[in-house]
Amino acid sequence: MKIEKKCIYCGGSFTAQTLSTKYCSPDCNKKHYKVRIKKGEFSTASFKGDSLKKIIFKKQTTLNIKQFLSIKDACELLGLSRSTLYRLIKDNKIYVTKIGSRIIIPKPEIEELLKKSTRTYIPDKVHAIKQNFNIKNYYYIGEIQNEYGVSEKQLYTLILKFNVEKVTIGSFVYVLKSDIKKIFK
Question: Distance (Å, rounded) from C-alpha 18 to C-alpha 11?
Answer without folding.
Answer: 18
